[in-house]
Structure formats: structure tokens, C-alpha cells
């Protein structure tokens, strides 16, 4: 049996099928990410990176092919089962933080835990520990607008890891930060991922950051190759 946390088998995605503007974005993707492996996804703009991450993270379904999370077939699950697998097993980080503006940093990390059934006190304690780990505990009561860009992304990392997912998916997680902050914040993320033993697929245009990961893959013309 494979120890893969994420497996994509022959995944295709076609938009506007059968119409003149049909786009075959993914043309048969095979990808396996094993436990604890951190993989960089490098892709030119428009190559289908977001589509691939959304399919891997169960936010979208492939036109054909299979998605397995921790060995479990996801493609044929109903919406409800897929939603609960996503909530329990996958953490997302986007280029922009997407934190809830009305809530404090702590609340942004606690809320997904409450939604997953963690008792309040345990959730708050975990939020506090995560915020300390990434160096923003002193900003715990602040709302996102009161945080710097780097701090916002650090809180977003905590939120993504709040429910102890098996897989982390990140789309240019430090892409909106200046190069120096990006480098520092990215190091925090990589350290956190490695400490947690989490598997991760992290899209980046930055080849220096990509080189810090275990493996680099390139998405081009709808197919994956080793970078
Ligand atoms: N819902 C949709 N309907 C039709 N076409 C779409 C849809 N979503 C994406 N596309 C097209 O599929 C292609 C890949 O889109 P995707 O968002 O996955 O690219 P990307 O690699 O993430 O790009 P970028 O790096 O610029 O964000 C693009 O040509 C886009 O126009």
C-alpha cells in the first residue's frame, strides 16, 4: 500500500466542454506526495496552477481521473462527505490572507477549530500556541487590518494548520510581500511544516524558494514534469 497523502491519477480538467472556447487546462496529471514531503509547484501564469490546487484540495472536481487523500478515494464522495474531508484533512493558504476582517487574529484561528467540533478552551489554547510559534502572539487581539502583511500571512498559516490537516496547499503564500519579508515569512512556514511532519504542495514563482523544498515540479501545457 502506498504511503501517499495525496495522489492524483490521470486528472483532467476541461472548461466549456464542447464549446468553441473549450479549454483543456489539465491533460492527465499523475502526482503522488508522500507523508512529510514538501513539493514546490512552479507554473507560468494561466498554466492551471489554481485549478490543480483546487482539485487537490477538494474545492473543485476533475473532469476525469481520481483524487485520493490518505489513500481514500475522494472523487466519488457526495458533497457533504467531501466538505468534511476538506475541513478535517486539508489546510489552505492563499496569496492574500482572506482572514475574517471582523475577528481578531486568535478568533480567526479558533473559528475553524470550533467548526470542526474542538471545545472552545482547547481551540483557544491551540490558537495561542500556534500564534506564539510564528511570532505574532503579541498581536493576538488585533484584527487583520491592524496587522502588517507579514503578520497577516503568519496568522493565515496558523489558521491553515489549526485543525491539524494531513495536507497543506498553498498558492503563492508570500507572493504579496516584499522580497525580504517574503523570505523570512516563507522560512517560518517551511519550519512549521517540517516540524509538523505535514505534506505540502506549495505553488511559487520564486525559484529560490522552490529550491528549499524537497522536490520541484513544473506544470506546463496541462502536464507535470520534474523541474
Ligand atoms: N471557471 C472557468 N471557466 C473557464 N475557464 C477557466 C475557469 N477557470 C479557469 N479557467 C481558465 O483555465 C486556465 C487556467 O486557470 P488557472 O486559474 O488554473 O491558472 P493559474 O495557473 O492559476 O494562473 P495564475 O498563475 O495567473 O493565477 C486559464 O486559461 C483560465 O482562463
TrEMBL record:
Its EC number is 3.6.3.-. One of its GO terms (molecular function) is ATP binding. InterPro entries: AAA+_ATPase (IPR003593), ABC_transporter-like_ATP-bd (IPR003439), ABC_transporter-like_CS (IPR017871), ABC_transpr_LolD-like (IPR015854), MacB-like_ATP-bd (IPR017911), P-loop_NTPase (IPR027417). The keyword Ribonucleoprotein does not apply. One of its GO terms (biological process) is protein localization to outer membrane. GO terms for cellular component: membrane protein complex; plasma membrane. It is an enzyme of class 3 (hydrolase). The keyword Nucleotidyltransferase does not apply. It comes from the Bacteria. Residues 6-227 form the ABC transporter domain. PROSITE patterns: ABC_TRANSPORTER_1, ABC_TRANSPORTER_2. Keywords: ATP-binding, Cell inner membrane, Cell membrane, Hydrolase, Lipoprotein, Membrane, Nucleotide-binding, Transport. SMART domains: AAA. Belongs to the ABC transporter superfamily. Macrolide exporter (TC 3.A.1.122) family. This is Lipoprotein-releasing system ATP-binding protein LolD. It comes from Nereida ignava.
Amino acid at each position: 500500500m502506498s504511503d501517499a497523502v495525496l495522489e492524483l491519477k490521470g486528472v483532467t480538467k476541461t472548461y466549456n466542454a464542447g464549446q468553441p472556447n473549450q479549454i483543456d487546462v489539465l491533460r492527465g496529471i499523475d502526482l503522488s506526495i508522500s507523508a512529510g514531503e514538501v513539493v514546490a509547484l512552479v507554473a507560468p501564469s494561466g498554466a492551471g496552477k489554481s485549478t490543480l490546487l483546487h482539485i487537490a484540495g477538494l474545492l473543485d472536481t476533475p473532469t476525469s481521473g481520481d483524487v485520493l487523500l490518505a489513500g481514500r478515494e475522494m472523487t466519488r464522495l457526495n458533497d457533504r462527505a467531501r466538505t468534511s474531508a476538506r475541513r478535517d484533512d486539508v489546510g489552505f493558504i492563499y496569496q492574500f490572507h482572506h482572514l475574517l476582517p471582523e475577528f481578531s487574529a486568535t478568533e480567526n484561528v479558533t473559528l475553524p477549530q470550533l467548526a470542526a467540533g474542538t471545545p472552545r478552551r482547547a481551540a483557544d489554547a491551540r490558537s495561542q500556541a500556534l500564534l506564539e510559534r510564528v511570532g505574532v502572539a503579541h498581536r493576538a487581539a488585533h484584527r487583520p487590518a491592524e496587522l502588517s502583511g507579514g503578520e497577516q500571512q503568519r496568522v493565515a498559516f496558523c489558521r491553515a494548520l489549526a485543525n491539524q490537516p494531513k495536507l497543506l496547499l498553498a498558492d503563492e503564500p508570500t507572493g504579496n510581500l516584499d522580497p525580504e519579508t517574503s523570505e523570512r515569512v516563507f522560512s517560518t512556514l517551511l519550519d512549521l511544516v517540517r516540524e509538523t511532519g505535514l505534506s505540502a504542495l506549495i505553488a511559487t514563482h520564486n525559484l529560490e524558494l522552490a529550491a528549499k523544498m524537497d522536490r520541484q515540479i513544473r506544470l506546463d501545457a496541462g502536464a507535470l514534469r520534474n523541474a
